[in-house]
Write a structure and sequence with these properties.
Number of domains: 2
Structural class: alpha+beta
CATH superfamily of the largest domain: Histidine kinase-like ATPase, C-terminal domain
Number of strands: 5
Main location: cytoplasm
Distance between the termini: 29 Å
Helix content: 55-70%
Number of helices: 8
CATH topology of the largest domain: Heat Shock Protein 90
Catalytic activity: ATP + protein L-histidine = ADP + protein N-phospho-L-histidine
Protein name: Oxygen sensor histidine kinase NreB
GO molecular function: 4 iron, 4 sulfur cluster binding; ATP binding; metal ion binding; phosphorelay sensor kinase activity; protein dimerization activity
CATH class of the largest domain: Alpha Beta
Shape: elongated
Strand content: 15-25%
GO cellular component, one term: membrane
Oligomer: single chain
Order of helices and strands: HHHHHEHEEHHEE
Length: 229
C-alpha cells in the first residue's frame, strides 16, 4: 500500500514542501545569481569602452552576449519553477502566459478556452490546475507527437472543470498506471495525487493512435454527487 496516496494529509504536506522549495529556488535564482550576472555585465560594459584596445572590445562584446543569454536562462528557469503571474494575477492569466511560451518554444498549436466568473480561486486549486496544465502540455510536446492541443477551463456553481486534449498518438492508460504502481512512471500518479488533495476527480481517456483527453473536476462550492463527464 502506498501511504502517500492513501493519506491526503501526507500528500498535501509533500506538495506544500515542493511548492515552498520551488519558491525558494526561484527567489535565489532571481536575487542571487541574477544580481551577480548583472554586476558582471556592467563591468564588461565599462571595459568595452576602452577605445585603444579594439580586439579586447570585440572579445568583451562576445562575453556580454554570453552573459545576456545566461541572464535570460535564469529568468526562464525562475518563471518555470513558480511563475509570479500565478500569484499576482491568478489561474487564467497564468495559463494564457504559459501556453504562449509553449507555442513559441515548441510550435505546438495549443488553444485555450475559458468560461469562468470569479477572478481568483483558492490558492491550492490554482496551483493544482496550473501544474496539471504544465505537466500535461509538457507530455504532449515530449511524447504525444501531436500537432494540436486544447485546454478548456469552465466554472459552474459548485465545480471547476479542466479538460486537456490533444490529437497525438495516445497511450494505454492501464499500462501506464501499472508502470506508476511499480515506480516506473510518475506523471499520471502525480496528477492524481494533486487532484486528490483538492478533493477533486480526474479521468484519463486515451487509446493508442487516437489522442488523449484528461478531464478534471474540482469542487469550488458545496459538494454534491456529480458524475464526471
Amino acid at each position: 500500500m502506498n501511504e502517500t496516496r492513501d493519506n491526503p494529509a501526507i500528500s498535501r504536506r509533500l506538495l506544500e514542501m515542493l511548492e515552498n522549495e520551488r519558491n525558494r529556488i526561484a527567489r535565489e535564482l532571481h536575487d542571487e545569481i541574477g544580481q551577480a550576472l548583472t554586476a558582471v555585465k556592467i563591468d564588461l560594459e565599462m571595459a568595452a569602452t576602452i577605445d585603444e584596445l579594439p580586439k579586447l572590445r570585440a572579445h568583451l562584446a562576445e562575453s556580454l552576449s554570453i552573459v545576456d543569454r545566461a541572464l535570460q536562462q535564469v529568468r526562464n528557469l525562475s518563471l518555470d519553477l513558480r511563475p509570479s503571474i500565478l500569484d499576482d494575477l491568478g489561474l487564467v492569466a497564468a495559463i494564457q502566459w504559459y501556453l504562449a511560451r509553449i507555442r513559441v518554444r515548441s510550435g505546438l498549436a495549443v488553444h485555450f478556452r475559458q468560461e469562468t466568473v470569479r477572478p481568483r480561486f483558492d490558492r491550492d486549486i490554482e496551483t493544482t490546475c496550473f501544474r496539471l496544465v504544465q505537466e500535461a502540455t509538457t507530455n504532449v510536446v515530449r511524447h504525444a507527437e501531436a500537432t494540436e492541443a486544447v485546454i478548456e477551463l469552465t466554472e459552474t456553481d459548485k465545480w471547476l472543470w479542466l479538460e486537456i486534449r490533444d490529437n497525438g498518438k495516445g497511450f494505454d492508460v492501464e499500462t501506464v498506471l501499472q508502470q506508476a504502481a511499480r515506480g516506473e512512471s510518475f506523471g499520471i500518479l502525480g496528477m492524481k495525487e494533486r487532484v486528490d488533495i483538492v478533493q477533486g476527480r480526474i479521468r484519463f481517456d486515451a487509446r493508442s493512435g487516437e489522442g488523449t483527453t484528461i478531464r478534471v473536476q474540482i469542487p469550488i462550492g458545496p459538494v454534491e454527487e456529480v458524475t464526471l463527464r
